[in-house]
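Lecture 7, part B: from sequences to assemblies.

Below are the input chains for today's worked example.
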Amino acid sequence: MNRGGSSPSAAANYLLCTNCRKVLRKDKRIRVSQPLTRGPSAFIPEKEVVQANTVDERTNFLVEEYSTSGRLDNITQVMSLHTQYLESFLRSQFYMLRMDGPLPLPYRHYIAIMAAARHQCSYLINMHVDEFLKTGGIAEWLNGLEYVPQRLKNLNEINKLLAHRPWLITKEHIQKLVKTGENNWSLPELVHAVVLLAHYHALASFVFGSGINPERDPEISNGFTLISVNNFCVCDLANDNNIENASLSGGNFGIVDSLSELEALMERMKRLQEETEDEEASQEEMSTRFEKEKKESLFVVSGDTFHSFPHSDFEDDMIITSDVSRYIEDPGFGYEDFARRGEEHLPTFRAQDYTWENHGFSLVNRLYSDIGHLLDEKFRMVYNLTYNTMATHEDVDTTMLRRALFNYVHCMFGIRYDDYDYGEVNQLLERSLKVYIKTVTCYPERTTKRMYDSYWRQFKHSEKVHVNLLLMEARMQAELLYALRAITRHLT
Amino acid sequence: MEKMSRVTTALGGSVLTGRTMHCHLDAPANAISVCRDAAQVVVAGRSIFKIYAIEEEQFVEKLNLRVGRKPSLNLSCADVVWHQMDENLLATAATNGVVVTWNLGRPARNKQDQLFTEHKRTVNKVCFHPTEAHVLLSGSQDGFMKCFDLRRKDSVSTFSGQSESVRDVQFSIRDYFTFASTFENGNVQLWDIRRPDRCERMFTAHNGPVFCCDWHPEDRGWLATGGRDKMVKVWDMTTHRAKEMHCVQTIASVARVKWRPECRHHLATCSMMVDHNIYVWDVRRPFVPAAMFEEHRDVTTGIAWRHPHDPSFLLSGSKDSSLCQHLFRDASQPVERANPEGLCYGLFGDLAFAAKESLVAAESGRKPYTGDRRHPIFFKRKLDPAEPFAGLASSALSVFETEPGGGGMRWFVDTAERYALAGRPLAELCDHNAKVARELGRNQVAQTWTMLRIIYCSPGLVPTANLNHSVGKGGSCGLPLMNSFNLKDMAPGLGSETRLDRSKGDARSDTVLLDSSATLITNEDNEETEGSDVPADYLLGDVEGEEDELYLLDPEHAHPEEPECVLPQEAFPLRHEIVDTPPGPEHLQDKADSPHVSGSEADVASLAPVDSSFSLLSVSHALYDSRLPPDFFSVLVRDMLHFYAEQGDVQMAVSVLIILGERVRKDIDEQTQEHWYTSYIDLLQRFRLWNVSNEVVKLSTSRAVSCLNQASTTLHVNCSHCKRPMSSRGWVCDRWGSGVGRWGRGLQAAQEPLLRRPPSCPPPGATAAPACVPSATTWSRVCSCGARAAATAATCSTS
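Predicted structure of the full complex, as structure tokens:
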């Protein structure tokens, strides 16, 4: 790995980051070197995204309607590959940030910052620092957590758990927050906060998973947007790496190889679909398969030195962390495999006992009206989105694949579906994809372009974005389910 | 049919007996079902599957069907059903998608009979055919329904809902071939069992998943459905299009619904989340449940009437791991607790009054006055003797209109708008408000403000000496007034302010539409008067002066010759002569005799008044003379606030409360404060003073009140061109909004600091402040079709 190249830039970024708030306030314009790749994403060639964009007037309309910044930011550009979904996404995000809700606007952005900081997602942090100030937030809060009201600080614990190990959230955590007192949260406020946290944790996954570039100057540089938009820090570091990786991995994989991979996948899907009544696995077998999948997910990243992040990069992480960590406590707290702590004292979350449709929705909608419908629509949209294509093939029923992706994410969070045969995951998701999924959902900040490139090499970028969307929503739903279940238990 | 009649006779022979009782299960239940002999119940859940015998005094575990070394997922039941023709036959739906049948007649310990593994996803519901012994129906998350013949290994037919998951399937009780299925997307489908290719009929019943449905046991074609949208709807399926007959609004999503046997209009419901009670509704009385069972500590997951012809026994299973038998006679009946009297003021003083019919009837003997210049309304609903609650909660609604040409509520609006409540020193606020009150001709209020200022602002502001002189002056004009304070004296002040404005008829009619009429209409419909939303007493003062004009008109008993007000006195506490006069002056008089005060009287005469507004009351300064801490007066101030509130001027009470803040808050109990706040806010909102009401909410210290700001405000906008609601896409009319992309991008940037101004709106004027939802901004915007749509935003949701 070319260490020499990336560390100076990391240092520069570090400086920039600490400055960016001051920059905002002092109105000192600093030009920042542009990221090496053009376009909204470091992983996806610019023309793939832009082409789609110019055609799509609908996206522009949506941005004007629902974007809080009023600009077509990079996330939106990448997502606009799936306009249908984009609409639900923007609507729900807009509702959380701007429409009626229990929390004051600056709070909402600050919570978004806190959530993004858990994954050191400077892209989202910068974006919301900007909006935080615009909505009248107190600039001092941006100096770090010790400057914010105790009430917000109290969210730390739940932010931390939700981001990395949501299964640890209990009703005691909820009780602590809502207990009457000086800094208590009302339930509607708490639900709003939880929705925001989950949304931005998941969005961080998407940002890293799709290699979203820092915002560039908007074409129409109208003074005040210019300054705030330019700051980019951590993302860029990741991207630098990715570009190197890209050059490494680019030609290495033979096309023949990947083609046959695709064929094999299609074949497996077909087989699974046909053998509706296979040998009829026993229940024990089924639950073993779930456990196996759970356990295997444990080794997916940590065991695989080839794919895992080069060790030296963790040090960079540390440096950067010190900057971002002003918004979080206990920065060392990270995802720990559900399976590893599965010494049977942490029961599996049975999806059928607390589903989003039956339980989660009712609760969230009760306490924070209408968000339930928006989230419901979004989950449904992403789950059902299909163009019936797979890479070059058309007229394919991808239901299985989508379900496998969704359930695999839930599996890593310890949520089990009784009616799902986890053997399918094994057959449908190849190892490199599993690595990618695990990284994006659990340690998004470690995602590299190499990981992104190494799976499904025949697939279109838009399909890979689709995968990212699925991962993001599955993760958000998992977090919400745990948090809402805890709230339900608190209520009963 | 033959068997059916046997059941009935069986019931006739031995009447069911039992008591309200419950038993603990080892695990949460997901569903229950009753054997046709009404003596056994089966409970199924993720880790429980047992049969209990229902005995006189208790449940007795009879059989555990969950056998085997390591229980498989096939035993993790989402639903269970007991065949109503065959006592030995049961079916369960497993969460892993397997349908299992059980034969209790099997000699082996394991009673499992058949296994159908055709569904790919969780099976939500199974249902036996009511008369056919071998027909079983299942509905699954995978969107398919399957019909099984138990004599065969596989399903006979598969029905595709062509949509998302099936939540419930129910065979019609009357139509041999028909079954209904409900879906996650809100649809209900009707199928003919012989035609699996397509459904006979489909309609959208709910917004969001329809969790359950139940055919009426007697009324052919009545189907009750319950959904996540917290509604129970009753559909008449016999007509060409399914017609909604009744709708019951519950407080939580409806998980199960079951018609009550032998009671044509009753059904029982339980909910999926949050609410643990079981309700029995009379669908014609959709607002108050007829009965309520409150035994469970966690959500109820299964309900079943014990016998198809006995309306008094209900069984239920719950997530709290208990099985209950409820007796109807032990149910709590919310109706008993309902208040059959209600009173509500319209914005301009019109009064609606609902009371028990008997009461009104008795009073009407007094012969109401019928003036020809007014058009009072009197609603009396025909009693349906068949209806429930007839004796309990039937009431009559009377509406009294006020005399035209009375005084308006202008003073209220003006005062609300002009009062300053925060942001300045106390003394200035008091002065300002006193000035406002005086300008509006409300002298007493003005005086009160002045007094408050004197009491609470340090005497240093107004040198004591300066004020003492006015004892003499005050004695001549101020004190007599205050001492003899009563209504008549205040008439020019209060009375005229509170006259109702009849002259502004136009403006009035549409305002009334907004608020009071809403109450009237619902009352008219259902007669359930659960207390008015306006506290009954706080405007009474205003109307009292005109009690002659208030009357009840009952057309049937109208006797024009006998002009008399028949308003029941007791329903309507008249304003009493005020015995406890405003605290200030009285107190001063007492003090005037005390020795320590008299000493300072010496200085008095020589000084001239500093400010004319002090002339009446300035005595007080001399008297406490900076030696009495403001605390000393807090009792008096409290009484004063109560006085105003009682008198109907809740505005004053709340304003003082806000301005004085901590100084008096501790003396008044939380509930009263909350009551005042809500009353005032309600009034303000009726006058559409959103800004003021929002300010009050913000300044209030009561938790319940500040929560008001956390609730959502929905703003509905219609396109003025095509009159369609512009809901689906923000601020654009679906129909006319095709060319919306052309809105200038540059504008967006300018808008950024603002919240969601409509995109085509010109740059903001002074109306909206950054970082806050504009509170009462009227947005005029151009729909892309060129039509203008205007809307008024309601309250601000940020703090």
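Note for the exam: The radius of gyration of chain A is 22 Å. Keep this in mind when comparing with the next example.
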